Structure formats: C-alpha cells, structure tokens
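Supplementary Text 2. Reproducibility record for the structural model of the 310-residue chain.

All settings were left at their defaults, and a single model was retained for analysis rather than an ensemble. We include the record here because the model underlies the residue-level annotations in Supplementary Table 4.
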Amino acid sequence: MKIMIRLYSLIFVSYFLCFSVASPADEVDSSEHGVTPGNKATTCKCGWANKVGRRIIGGSDAGKNEWPMMAGIIVKNPVNKVYMHMCGGTIITNWHIVTAGHCIYDESGIPKKETELGVILGAHSLKEVDYENPEVLLAPKKLIAHPKYIWPSTYDIAIILMKKFEFSNIIGPACLPIKRFDFVGSRLKVIGWGDIDHRGTIPDILKKSTLNGVDTDKCSFYGDLFDKADHYQMCTFQEDRSGQCVGDSGGPVLWNDPETNRFTLVALPSFGYIGCVIKPAVCTDVTYFLPWIQEVVSSTQPEARTCSKQ
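Retained model, structure tokens:
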C-alpha cells in the first residue's frame, strides 16, 4: 500500500531550515571518503559510507544506502491520515537517535507523544517505504529533549530512545566527536529529505551536499535566536550556490575525520533564513552536548555504547 508523503514544514518566527547546494565546481566529494579505514581506529564500527557506483556531485541524489547513519522521523496527520516526513535524525547506538529538540514538539511548542511519531532506518526513497509495516516504521519508546530546551531553538537537541534495532551494512551509527572542536573553515556534509528549493519542493530521494563552517558573527543577524553567550550553536554557509537547498531539521551534519576516514556527527540543522539562498543557517553544535548525550545513553540503556576515535 502506497502512502502519500508530504513534508512537515516547521516554520517559526519567519524562519525555516534550508541549506544550499554547492555548484559542481565547488564540491569536494571523494568517492573514498568514509569507505576505506584511516590511520586511526574507532572504538566500534561507525561513520562509514557505502561506496556508490559513480561520483555524485553538485548536491544531487545520495547513492542508495550510502549513508547508514541517516534516520527519518515521520508523523501521521490525524485528520487525513497522510504520513509526513517531518525531520531527520542520526543513529548513535542500537537504541538511540539524535535529532533537534523542535522535532519532538508541535508548531505550538507542545511536546509530542511517542505514539505520534515513527522512525525509518535504511531508507532511500520515501515513496518506497511501507509505512503501515511496524517493522519498517519503528515506534519510539521515549522522546527526550534537552532539559534546557525552549521552543523553538534554544538548546535545540533531543534523543529518541528506541527498542533495540540491529545494525547492518545499511544501518549503523555515526561516530561521535571526542572533544569540542572549532569547525570554522571545515567542509561538512549535510544529508536529508528536506526542501530542495525556496519554494518548498520536496525530494523523494535522499539528498546530500557540502557546507562550510563559518564564523558565528555571520549568524549574528538572527538576534536572540542565535545565542552568542553560550556557545552551543554553530553557523554554516555555502559561498557558491546553485539556488537549491538540501537538509532536514535535526538531520546529520557530518565531518570526515581525516585520521579515521570516518564520518563524525558534529552538528544538527536547527534553523535558517527564509529564502535559504541568501543567508547562513544555524546548527546545534553536537560537540557542546557530548556530556549530556553520554548521560542520556547510559541512563536509558546501560548496554548501549557510542563510537568515536580511539
């Protein structure tokens, strides 16, 4: 049974998430990034990318099953029963998915119930997902927002606790950073099923693109939404753009660690300027929240282990 997919658009204070796609000339996307092991090992298998048959550049489709750490967060419209892709998320253990705080709240700032959301893993085409199958659309056990989270974007991070799911070649965790790091000037990979242009065009196939970490001063025009006093946010931008966008709120922003050649989760898309091709976007800095993430993981599932560089 095919279910219609529509994007759950989270719009607040005249802002919404939107990332720009690099032009082919500016894209850096080695076919070996995340594929072959680097010089340093990781504490457990994480952050790999599955090699695709051809080099994909210019912010176009991701290869099928290229990104095992990608999770999709789905909501079912109670009125018309349509399944809507709402946000992205990142697998970090067999039980835990990291996403943005606002992804587990509704547009009025009310926390969602676990029964209102579902999670898909190992997906590529949203149209091919069997949303009526409980083994495909997985049910969350608990939705955990950061204790300082204030809707819509203050301390914008959450963890979804799941029933244990098995890893495979196409489902597995991103690596986590081992410490705080300044990503200004770094090339970052963003993945998602979010809007691909400022008109709200929604892709069926998972997309990927490359962003730059930029100085936080470039996001100061967001005013109080961008908290410069407490450094839990980072600013991203793509200088040379084609006018398209890609990325989900809460989805993975990844850094390829050259020592491990594995993709490390460093940020979560939080919000961006309307129009999305003219201003930088703001992400939650995952490195700031490492102690909280580890606390939640250990307290909710003592058997769970995150993976990182040794």
